[in-house]
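To whoever is on call:

I kicked off a structure prediction for a single chain this morning and the downstream step that reads the tokens threw a length-mismatch warning. I double-checked the sequence; it's 151 residues and nothing unusual in it as far as I can see. Pasting both halves so you can look.
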Amino acid sequence: MDPRPPTPDHRLGPHPLTEEGIAALLDRYAFGDACLRRVALDQEYGPRAARGRLAGLVIDARVVGEDLRWEPVYLELHDVRRFRIDESVGFSWVLYDPPRFTRFDGLLQVDLCAERFGSLRPESAAEVFEGSELVFEAAGGTWSALHPWEG
């Protein structure tokens, strides 16, 4: 039995993490002081393992234009090739800047510690991973707004 509360149902989405979908995500939410609430990794095995490894990230972020109310955002990354999750300082991960989404070699990199680049853009996937403490590389993914957490 899993003692954690279940992830809430989707309220809005899922939207693909394409250029348009990422723009919509970054327009909807203010990620400054957002908190990464949950990281779930799931690996399928056997002949029906078409999706590969999945990563589900739940981030509490503020909705722009709605008195900045908090809303859980769910990023689901498909066919995760590699990831890096270093231990956070303190009790949780706080995001100071919006996630940085890049594409190199046909793969999507989602860097949740993008403030280290400032206004610069990384030049390779290796550079994205070198200094980040919380980063994922996947074939693709989606984002959704979730209903508020219960309890």
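Update from on-call: the warning came from a stale cache, not from the record. Cleared it. Sanity check on the structure: The first strand starts at residue 10 and ends at 16.
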